[in-house]
Amino acid sequence: MAKSPKRLLVVEDNAHDARFVTRALSQTDDTLYIVHVTHADEAVARLEHEHFDYVLLDIKMPGIDGMELLQRIRSNEGTSVVPVIVLTSSTNPSDVLRSYKAGANAYSAKPSSLSGYRQFAEAFVRFWIENTLPPGGTMLHQ
């Protein structure tokens, strides 16, 4: 039985990090449909009009930061249950705690190498895509 394609929104302002993670994820699961945006306001616009099964979120971004975006996602009925995985450069315990309190489903430090991004992608696909059932279709305006 063929698995249905999953949709992932990657919210990452650093072009290199975005390229590394999206490439690693695409190579690990070629059925994963990935949309990359660089700012939280772009993410809000996409979430208002499109269904995503997962959000991969950097919390350290200019303007509306990832933490505020996470709070918006969780406070909206249409996206409140979408799995949000924080992937960020911060290993500060207060950022980790704030993220979980705001509703993150997982928190991971950005890898420091290409092989680290591959390992992250393999773990992401193995857990989130192959071993969990995401909630049904979700959009911000529902």
From TrEMBL:
Keywords: Phosphoprotein. It comes from the Bacteria. Pfam families: Response_reg. This is Response regulator. GO terms for biological process: phosphorelay signal transduction system. SUPFAM superfamilies: CheY-like. InterPro entries: CheY-like_superfamily (IPR011006), Sig_transdc_resp-reg_receiver (IPR001789), TCS_response_regulator (IPR052893). The lineage of its organism: Bacteria, Pseudomonadati, Pseudomonadota, Alphaproteobacteria, Hyphomicrobiales. The modification 4-aspartylphosphate is found at residue 58. It comes from Ensifer oleiphilus. Gene3D superfamilies: 3.40.50.2300. Residues 7-125 form the Response regulatory domain.
